[in-house]
Specification:
Blueprint (H helix, E strand, L loop, with lengths): L3 H12 L4 H12 L8 H10 L4 H25 L1 H10 L3 H14 L1 H9 L4 H10 L4 H26 L4 H27 L1
């Protein structure tokens, strides 16, 4: 089943649009609180297409991802009961329980790691608010974790340039499904 190739092509077309930075900012904001597609899929082709602006795109992605994370934090803090049926409907309820355990065990470190990792960051932002994590450490850890991730992605694209695009296109389907397996494997490991 080809899922990630068509998504990659769609996002690639968005990345060439004159309003692409706005789309990137919106996607980055939304992904940190409710949207399922990570902004990397737009950051990568934009950084490939305009390597001279790659660091600007990384900064934009980081800023709006952290702002979206604050929205996720506020959702968890004030609206968890209201959004709980949606969390259950999309199958995230068991993951939420795992997140609560991770927060109890690792605290701020879990935000740092989640910000950098391919795990669904939105679940961590909502859980941070729901568990009453202090907002300032949450923001600092988010800036460091998300920034490290997005600046790494943009730097690799800038460094690799156009010669990386055929590699990404060739392996996008495998990389996408590998990402899904890693996320579900981690969650299954924590649930067991």
């Amino acid at each position: 089943m080809k899922l990630f190739g068509p998504l990659y092509d769609l996002v690639l077309s968005w990345s060439r649009h004159r309003h692409a930075p706005r789309y990137l900012a919106g996607m980055s904001f939304a992904e940190s609180s409710f949207f399922p597609i990570p902004p990397d899929v737009m950051l990568m082709p934009m950084s490939l297409a305009r390597p001279e602006k790659a660091m600007y795109f990384a900064w934009l992605t980081t800023l709006f991802s952290v702002l979206g994370g604050v929205l996720g934090y506020l959702i968890g803090m004030w609206l968890l009961e209201w959004v709980w049926p949606l969390i259950e409907r999309v199958g995230y309820a068991p993951y939420y329980d795992v997140m609560v355990e991770l927060f109890a065990e690792y605290g701020i470190w879990i935000i740092l790691v989640a910000g950098f990792s391919p795990l669904p960051y939105k679940m961590f932002t909502i859980t941070a608010g729901a568990t009453g994590m202090a907002l300032l450490p949450f923001i600092i850890a988010s800036v460091i974790g998300r920034g490290a991730r997005f600046f790494l992605v943009a730097s690799l694209m800038k460094w690799g340039g156009v010669k990386m695009e055929p590699f990404i296109r060739k392996w996008v389907e495998w990389l996408g499904w590998a990402f899904v397996l890693v996320v579900f494997g981690f969650i299954a490991y924590k649930l067991l």
